[in-house]
Amino acid sequence: MLRTRITEMLGIEHPIIGGAMMWLSRHELTAAVSAGGGLGILASANYTDLDEFRDALGRVKDATDKPFGVNLNMFPSFRKLDNNLYLDVMEKEGVKIVETSGHRAPDHLAGRIKAAGMTLIHKCVAPRYAKKAESVGVDAVTVVGWENGGATGVLDIATMVLIPRTVDAVSIPVIGGGGVGDGRGLAAILALGAEAAIVGTRFLAATEAPIHPRVRQEMIRRIESDTMLVMRSVQNTHRVLKTPNALKVREMEARGADLDELRTIIAGENTSRMLTEGDLDSGILSLGQAVGFVREIKPAAEIIDEIARDAEDVFEKMEGIFGRGRGAPCA
Q: For all residues of the chain together, what is the average pLDDT?
């Protein structure tokens, strides 16, 4: 069993956190990740209606009694998001774990979240942002290297460097990610000093992820070199699946297209149509380099068990080679 400050803090079995993904981290996938022993995170931005959001929280609680979290999105959005309204619902529904993500520390939300007795995790992309988050009272930080799918920031720091630099910069627990798709990745994240791994792309292959079968099969066909960075020109860099649309976005950016022109492709409703209808010529799909590990579709619980078991095997193998070291995460 892999036990860390994060598993103890969150009350979860395995140090595996589900990435909050737009259009995908809805109640089905959130509950499945939590029920499997990780921490599922519901992406609040998926719900434009507060009653719909409240219903999603209820569905997660009906599906599992295990801990789960809610992500509050602070990134630029075409749709105005009032996170205080989401927090109104979360407080009434007894949500215990909150993840914030965006281009700034959650200083405007931290006081309210902590006063409500919620555990607060902030996701960012550099040690200096992690230090700022620690200074406003967050309980843990998540950092993701640029191998990550979706928002990567503009600093282009790889996971191998980002995690130990962040661990050295803060005293609170660190969750690390970016390219984690199997047990070797989890073991590496822990060896770098993080106390859990955040996993996104691999969970797109979970049977509970609300994705059209055609998109799933496309993921299985792709490898780690089949992603690319777009939207850097509008200060919102994302790693996405390499498709004709993604290549078109890059070409548009190279010739100076403005946001309104880019929206004809990158608008969320286009991606939603891709995921629900299987229209691969619509929108762009956030996807990390860990797509290279996606080889079959299986339940989230099986993915978690496989990753955790294989990570434990790595540590046992290392123990056999080097002997049990101080601070090993196995208990």
A: 93
